[in-house]
Write a structure and sequence with these properties.
4-stranded antiparallel β-sheet; Immunoglobulin-like; disordered N terminus; 5-stranded mixed β-sheet; 2 domains; mainly beta
Length: 231
């Protein structure tokens, strides 16, 4: 007499793994998006009268994309072509200054570049603009150069205990943060940068700056730029 193999235990184990999410498989590299701002990188109008601006981004694997203008909003009127190689969006109105435009799809995220809001007067707020390199091994140890907009000092002076911002990759604090340096010669095009050593991680992590003291009113905790951990 033939008997059916008993798979009850294996079935329960499979269900348990499924229920807990199971191992996370990173998307194939061929599906990870690429994106670059090709027009509309500066807000239309004048400093006194900024106007709605259409931003065009070209790249690959952009279907299903959502946008974030440096923690200020996704913009409106998002249109993505059928090939997933170009999108247009009306930038959101916001406080003056520069922000990174981060594109997120079901298969990853990428910093498309910097968008400039009209800026009639200097701002004290600090916003991350870019990370270089944008990826590194899962074991960590990559030295990442971070460009920022704004001033890390305070007016009239730094609060007690302030030295350098803390840098986080997701929820994990980075090490080896250096003082701001003037970027001269080859390398990042932004005027001021800091560096940090990436901790271990997986998938895509949001890099953020956080103030090490409680009175950190000049830092944005919602602004981030992406970093990809490679298997």
């Amino acid at each position: 007499m033939l008997t059916r193999p008993r798979l009850f235990g294996l079935t329960l184990l499979t269900l348990a793994i499924t229920a807990c999410g199971g191992p996370v498989t990173p998307p194939p590299a061929s599906l990870v998006p690429t994106a670059t701002i090709t027009s509309g990188a500066t807000e239309n109008g004048t400093n006194a009268n900024p106007l709605p601006t259409t931003v065009t981004i070209t790249g690959t694997n952009l279907l299903g994309a959502t946008l974030d203008f440096g923690g200020t909003g996704p913009g409106t009127n998002l249109v993505i072509n059928a090939a997933g190689t170009m999108l247009t969006v009306t930038a959101p109105p916001n406080l003056p200054g520069r922000r990174p435009v981060v594109v997120t799809t079901p298969n990853g995220k990428v910093n498309a570049g910097t968008y400039t809001f009209r800026q009639p007067t200097p701002r004290p707020n600090v916003y991350l603009l870019s990370a270089s390199p944008t990826s590194g091994p899962a074991v960590g140890g990559t030295t990442v150069t971070l460009a920022f907009d704004g001033n890390l000092t305070y007016n009239p002076g730094d609060p007690a205990g302030f030295t350098l911002p803390n840098v986080y990759f997701g929820a994990v604090q980075a090490t080896g943060v250096t003082a701001p340096v003037l970027a001269i010669g080859p390398g990042p095009t932004e005027k001021y940068t800091i560096t940090a050593v990436a901790p271990a991680g997986s998938g895509f992590a949001d890099i953020t700056l956080k103030c090490p003291v409680a009175s950190c009113y000049t830092f944005s905790t919602t602004n981030s730029v992406p970093f990809q951990y490679l298997p």
